[in-house]
Automatic annotation (TrEMBL):
Keyword Signal: no
Keywords carried by this UniProt record: DNA-binding
UniProt keyword DNA-binding present: yes
GO cellular component annotations of the record: nucleoid
Name assigned to this protein: Single-stranded DNA-binding protein
Cited NCBIfam families: ssb
Subunit structure: Homotetramer.
GO molecular function: enzyme activator activity; single-stranded DNA binding
Native organism taxonomy: Bacteria, Bacillati, Chloroflexota, Chloroflexia, Chloroflexales
C-alpha cells in the first residue's frame, strides 16, 4: 500500500453539458471557457420503492488552448470526462459586504465521449 505524505486535489467527472460552453477572451487575449456539467448520483426511493437518481451540477472552467477546443467542439448534451482540480474563489460582495464564494473544477484534461469525434485534449497539447 502506498502512502502519501502530502495532499491530493484531483477530480474526475463524467457527465453531460447542461448548456453550450461560454467562451471569451480575458486579460491579454487568453481564452477562457466555462460550462456546467450534469452528473447523476443515487438518491432515495419513490413510493413504489424504485431507486431514484439526483442530478449534481458542477461548474467547469478551462483556459488557453483547452478553452478554445471546448468552444469549438462542445455543445449542450455532449458527454465528456473532465479531469482537473477543485478550486474555490472568495470575494467581498460590494452591496452587502458579505464574503461570497464559489467552488468549481479547473479542467486540465477533457475527453469527448460521444459522437464520432472521440477527442482527448489537455492543457499541455498544442
Amino acid at each position: 500500500m502506498r502512502s502519501f505524505r502530502g495532499t491530493v486535489n484531483r477530480v474526475e467527472l463524467i457527465g453531460r453539458l447542461g448548456a453550450d460552453p461560454e467562451v471569451r477572451q480575458v486579460g491579454n487575449g487568453v481564452s477562457f471557457c466555462r460550462f456546467s456539467l450534469a452528473t447523476n448520483r443515487p438518491g432515495g426511493t419513490d413510493e413504489q420503492g424504485k431507486r431514484q437518481s439526483e442530478t449534481e451540477w458542477t461548474t467547469v472552467e478551462a483556459w488557453e488552448r483547452l478553452a478554445e477546443v471546448c468552444g469549438n467542439y462542445l455543445q449542450k448534451g455532449r458527454r465528456v470526462m473532465v479531469m482537473g482540480s477543485l478550486r474555490t474563489d472568495s470575494w467581498q460582495d460590494k452591496e452587502s459586504g458579505q464574503t461570497r464564494s464559489r467552488t468549481y473544477v479547473r479542467a486540465d484534461e477533457i475527453i469527448f465521449l460521444d459522437g464520432g469525434n472521440n477527442r482527448h485534449e489537455s492543457e499541455e497539447e498544442e
